[in-house]
Design a protein that fits this description.
119 residues, Rossmann fold, 5-stranded parallel beta sheet, 45% helix, globular
């Protein structure tokens, strides 16, 4: 399985990988992107099975990146990552094709279930 993690905070990349590896999902190939522009490029280059993408990022936010990714790759599964106070943006992302969302800080069980069901 290929997983693209898109977040401007390096700590989030580390935490996602640590949680999934600790739970035995060692068959995942990870790739990182740190803003929406990188996410669009990595979606094309890496062709992930699943994208975990933050909504609020510099350069191009997650919703704008989601629109482009879903336009170019309609079957690509994108899960939006949000923090408190972004309910309106979560609703927008679902409108533009996100499969679902997960809230930061991550509940480890929820993250594991979400990713393992995508394998």
């Amino acid at each position: 399985m290929k997983l693209l993690i898109v977040d401007d905070a390096k700590l989030i990349h580390f935490m996602v990988k640590k949680i999934l590896m600790a739970r035995g999902l060692s068959n995942i190939e990870f790739e990182d992107a740190f803003d929406g522009n990188e996410a669009i490029w990595q979606a094309k280059k890496f062709e992930p099975d699943l994208i975990l993408m933050d909504i609020v990022m510099p350069e191009k936010d997650g919703i704008e990146a989601l629109k482009i990714i879903k336009h170019n790759h309609p079957d690509m599964k994108v899960v939006m990552v949000s923090s408190m106070g972004t309910e309106k943006k979560v609703a927008q992302s679902l409108k533009y094709g996100a499969a679902t969302f997960i809230q930061k800080p991550f509940d480890e069980d929820e993250l594991y279930d979400l990713v393992s069901k995508s394998i």
